[in-house]
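Hi, does anyone understand the following?
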Amino acid sequence: MAKSRVVWAVLAAGVLAGGTVSGCSKSETPAAESTASETTAAETSAPETKAPEFDPSKYIDPQDPSVAVGTGEFLDPAGDSDPATNTLVGFVASGATNEEASATVIKACQDAGGVECTADEVTNDDLCIVSVASDATDVVAGGAGATVEEAKQDALRRAEANGTPEGPDAVVVVSNCNDE
């Protein structure tokens, strides 16, 4: 497979821990094969809670030709129904076809307890794909390009063309570069 940069604001070490961070997430440095980062746009001091264990590696097969990235929203543990305290989490999954990879990334999100799970971009080519999100506009968009930055710009253009532009705070939530 390839280089993945997965930003799971609350998913680390196979355990979902909600409430430690909020908002869209970003990572400043690429990490190798599906690792997590906790660099965020905003942080809170809410107590940590645990959900069922989740193993992201079971959704990625290095032999699969197609890879998808997607996102899902995780409700805040306080249950205050304030969407501003929810967390957006990124996922990567693979499949034998683009359709299978897209379905698998949605399943990975749902299995982890996410709601409003989406497959934002999929490829079977040597491209980088991303999910980009904005707290300011609550928009998530997918894009593809030769690099993560080109893919981000593609996602921003697509969002604008769809009449749902990203805000100035738009960040890459998850990326995968299928270059091997």
The first strand starts at residue 3 and ends at 6. The longest helix spans residues 98-111.
